[in-house]
Design a protein that fits this description.
Blueprint lengths: L2 H6 L3 H9 L17 H8 L5 H10 E4 L2 E5 L5 E4 L1 H11 L6 H4 L1 E2 L7 E2 L5 E9 L1 H5 L8 H23 L2 E7 L4 E10 L1 E7 L2 H4 L3 H4 L11 E7 L2 E2 L18 E6 L10 H30 L3 H28 L2 H20 L1 H7 L2 H13 L2 H7 L8 H15 L13 H11 L7 H19 L4 H7 L4 H11 L5 H9 L2 H5 L4 H43 L12 E6 L3 E3 L2 E3 L2 E3 H10 L10 H6 L8 E6 L11 E3 L5 E8 L17 E5 H11 L3 H13 L3
Helix pairs in contact: 2-13, 2-24, 8-24, 11-12, 11-15, 11-19, 15-24, 17-22, 17-24, 19-21
């Protein structure tokens, strides 16, 4: 085993000791592809994946921004979720051709639709660069100084990696600062839509059924990546299983699990429970009310707002589940007991106490500090007060022009050379912006800022000047030229003097609030993020010293491996079986008198007589997932696709903090249900032939 593998393998106790007091058990964890738990998998599932098996799975996985997907044919065909592709479907739609409502199927290659500003990434290699990052910190540095020095070192490493390999490179922080790995990606920017079902088929049951089970959703979407105007040829892809999975079968997932907090201290979790998550919930509830009010003004307004409403409803339900877990007294008491044991062990060893003893108090202090200014930080740096795509574009232009003359290591990370191409693709995207929607969103967020901070707050006085929020929003939106791609390009290409001379009101707003926003950002980095990065690295190292080897770090929106089995669970004393089928879909509609969101689409109703109703549709497994795993392929021991993850059950939502294998379940669309629907409901014969042809080519 190489040195970096030995070091990476030292860490599962971070979760085990700090959160549940147990060593990792089967089915649990967000495992690094460069440190897979082969022996544990073999013991739990009776199968040990080879390096070649893991490499193919890694390079078949596709990163969709904050979600996941996978190659399922050598011609660059990608499977993900409908809700992952929803924004692209929205941006490709018009009032006359609503792809969200009616779906889309390309009959031939020439019909595949270019997706605006979509960028997909495939992880090609990983390298441990911990020693190089740690070397940037010198004795006597404050946590803020050390944070800045490490960030500059990470930028230098990313730049060198990009130049040496030609691959986009990102240094990933693991165990909240105990390890650093550079991830290298192949990037695809010519992405085209191949197939999507109707929204009502993909999200059957709507928000009431979201994060529940049983489910009956065709939450799928197919894209294809192109190179030089032709479908990309990919060496690594996942063949389709024609047999699917059975109850109890071993399964694996490769996905970009979002940020988790399983390492967090009790004080940090209490902050999230009492301050952080309630604040996010209040903000999202207000945005939801504003969007639904706008959508109610007409059919076109409803179409424009649909994807944002969907995203907010999904987030609201997720955060409500998370806070429910944190309000569980038994969970928090267990966490407190385990943390106390660890701290006692550190105190009992003078050497460990000297190195790590103050780490927990540092987190307490950082959270207390953040509680004093989180609202100001949210309204400015996180733009809670300026909820508009126009403002996002304006801020990007203002900061791009300001950061460009600086040395790479001195820039804000999102404006370094290695990230500029991606930034510019987003900045200059031709995707539509709807002024009326932007006015409604901005007016509400300005009012929210005024209501929360008060009319006498300096930021409120600066932005509103005593005027009604709706009037200010109208002036900003109606006066900006940022809806024009060429105007954005001209502003971004200029120097600081040219930008300062711009009279565009949205640019003027971004300029006006930028100094305060940067000040609050720096305060957060110096007094919160930097302090916590130092403290959590110490806590992790204390655990290594006391407990010895173990395994996985918290999820970081980067590629991870999960393993488990297809398995039902028990809820309120009743057995929940792992599979649903097409018959259950029609039965559920009948039970609700086909009232929305339980109305089956006309296309499915028309084809009911041709469908084998016992076809498996959705299933659950013990795979450990969180947000970001949407679109993750579920594969069997042969590395064949047996499903695609699209959700978790309600019991999975505390999984950001703890995993409970008895009830945590990942919800997937079954590969057999997908093929049957494509063939018999949608007549997508070309797509079926490509998928099944790829499956045949890879069979022995």
């Amino acid at each position: 085993m190489t040195a970096w593998r030995r070091r990476s393998a030292l860490v599962f106790v971070v979760f085990a000791a700090l959160l549940v007091g147990l060593r990792g058990r089967a089915d649990e964890g967000f495992w690094l592809f460069n440190a897979p738990p082969k022996a544990a998998i073999a013991q739990a599932l009776g199968f040990e994946p080879t390096d070649a098996w893991l490499t193919r799975l890694q390079r078949s996985a596709v990163k969709f921004g904050g979600a996941s997907g996978s190659f399922v044919s050598p011609e660059g065909l990608i499977l993900t979720n409908h809700h992952v592709g929803l924004r692209t479907l929205q941006r490709l739609s018009t009032p006359e051709r609503d792809l969200v409502k009616n779906g889309f199927s390309a009959a031939v290659l020439a019909d595949e639709l270019k997706a605006p500003d979509m960028e997909l990434r495939v992880l090609m290699s990983i390298e441990d660069v911990t020693a190089r990052v740690d070397a940037a910190e010198t004795p006597g540095m404050t946590p803020a100084e050390a944070f800045a020095a490490r960030r500059a070192a990470m930028t230098t490493i990313e730049d060198a990696s990009r130049k040496a390999t030609g691959l986009e490179s990102e240094v990933v922080t693991l165990y909240q600062g105990a390890l650093y790995h550079v991830y290298r990606y192949k990037t695809y920017t010519d992405v085209r839509l191949v197939f999507a079902p109707e929204f009502d088929a993909a999200f059957y049951g709507g928000d009431p059924d979201n994060f529940t089970y049983p489910r009956y959703c065709l939450d799928i979407c197919f894209f294809r990546v192109y190179e030089d105007g032709k479908p990309a040829r990919v060496a690594d892809y996942l063949p389709w299983s024609l047999e699917g999975a059975r109850d109890g079968d071993p399964v694996f997932a490769a996905g970009h699990a979002g940020s988790t907090q399983r390492l967090n201290t009790v004080a940090h979790l209490e902050y999230l429970r009492d301050v952080g998550i309630p604040w996010v919930l209040a903000t999202y509830e207000r945005r939801h009310a504003a969007l639904t009010s706008y959508a109610a003004t007409g059919a076109e307004a409803e179409r424009q707002a649909k994807d944002e409403i969907f995203g907010i409803e999904n987030s609201l339900k997720s955060y409500r589940g998370q806070i429910g877990g944190l309000r569980d007294a038994a969970l928090m008491a267990k966490k407190a007991r385990v943390e106390a044991r660890l701290r006692d062990a550190v105190k009992a060893d003078p050497a460990l106490g000297a190195k790590f003893g103050g780490a927990w108090e540092s987190v307490v202090g950082a959270r207390r500090t953040f509680a004093s200014f989180y609202k100001d930080h949210s309204f400015t740096e996180n733009a809670y007060g300026f909820n508009s795509r126009y403002f996002s574009l304006a801020r990007s232009i203002v900061r791009l022009v300001a950061e460009r003359p600086k040395p790479d290591a001195a820039r804000l990370p999102e404006y370094t050379e290695g990230r500029l191409a991606s930034l510019e693709r987003t900045l200059f995207s031709p995707s539509p912006i709807y002024p009326a929607l932007e006015r409604a969103k901005l007016a509400d967020s300005l009012a929210y800022m005024a209501d929360t901070l008060g009319a006498d707050h300096p930021l409120v006085r600066q932005v509103l000047g005593g005027r009604p929020p709706a009037a200010v929003a109208a002036t900003l939106v109606d006066g900006t030229t940022l809806g024009d791609v060429n105007a954005r390009k001209a502003l971004a290409a200029g120097d600081q003097a040219a930008l300062d001379a711009s009279t565009d009101p949205m640019i003027a707003l971004a300029r006006a609030v930028d100094a305060e926003s940067r000040r609050l950002r720096k305060r957060y980095e110096d007094e919160v993020a930097g302090v916590e990065r130092d403290a959590y690295a110490k806590i992790a190292r204390a655990v290594f010293a006391i407990e010895g080897p173990a395994a996985y770090p918290d999820a970081t929106s980067t590629l991870r491996l999960a393993y488990g089995r297809v398995r039902g669970y028990e809820e309120d004393g009743r057995a929940v079986v792992p599979f649903t089928d097409f018959a259950g879909l029609f039965a559920r509609a009948a039970a609700h008198q086909s009232a929305p969101p339980y109305r089956i689409t006309d296309r499915w109703v028309a084809k009911k007589g041709a469908l084998p109703l016992d076809t498996p549709f959705n299933f659950v497994s013990t795979l450990d997932i969180v947000g970001g795993n949407s679109g993750s392929p579920v594969v069997n021991r042969a590395g064949e696709v047996v499903g695609v993850i699209f959700d978790g059950n309600i019991q999975s939502l505390p999984g950001y903090f703890i995993y409970d294998g008895a009830v945590n379940r990942a919800v997937s669309v079954d590969a057999r249900g997908i093929l049957t629907a494509l063939r018999l409901v949608y007549g997508a014969d070309r797509l079926v032939a490509e998928i099944t042809g790829a499956a045949r080519r890879t069979r022995p």
